[in-house]
Sequence to fold (93 residues):
Amino acid sequence: MSESNLDAQGQIAEIRERIDQIDCQLVRLLNERAQCSLDIRALKPQARQGLYDPKREEEIFVNVAKCNEGPLFADDLREIYEAILHVAKEMRG
Fold:
């Protein structure tokens, strides 16, 4: 194996380790977000609000697009957030 091949393999291993760390952070943040959703769901009957709020979902999509600095495209983030919101709606709480 050449020296450049070993160097590339070392860099790949380091980047994969960083990805694993980021994934753990994402899981922690997704669970924190899920708990916030459950907290809001518990409060909605007192506030006399329905569980589904399409206007709020649009606000979330707008906010996420505004926060985006790339390299993900806005459509990619919207797809990810549609999945997150779908799961949040299906959560048992």
